[in-house]
Amino acid sequence: MSLKTTDLCDDHSDHLAIATPLFRDFGGRRQFHGPISTVKVFEDNSLVRAALEEPGEGRVLVVDGGGSMRCALLGDNLAEMGRQNGWTGIVVYGCIRDSADLADMDIGVKALNTHPLKSVKKGEGERDASVTFAGITVRAGSYLYADEDGIIVAQQPLHND
Asked: Is 161 inside a domain boundary?
């Protein structure tokens, strides 16, 4: 099912949060959508791993990494785990690594940039908290739609699967 963010904006713009266009596409899937689960971390991807180890059930993981450009919060191993566990996409307000490998995976990945250094693993952060970045506030349970034109968030689903 093709759900273009442009069409959704045309039909529902009064009820959407539209992210400032800061993100680049890295995953092999360019269009993805689903209910949101969030993690809020800073240079520690322990909670990212914990989330992606769970059944995704068509959800999108939104990672508020504080916009850090000092390390990666997601790489090919975690993205593949997420894909295998049924996550449709991952949005990282921060960096990823293994970008060439991510480009061949059937999962949506959007992030600010790449960085070769992995993060620390201290287990710090918050799960399913509201996060704010790129001019929007994202809440667990809301719906995210992403494609080559951007990222939008709605409180209710804008589609029928």
From this structure: no
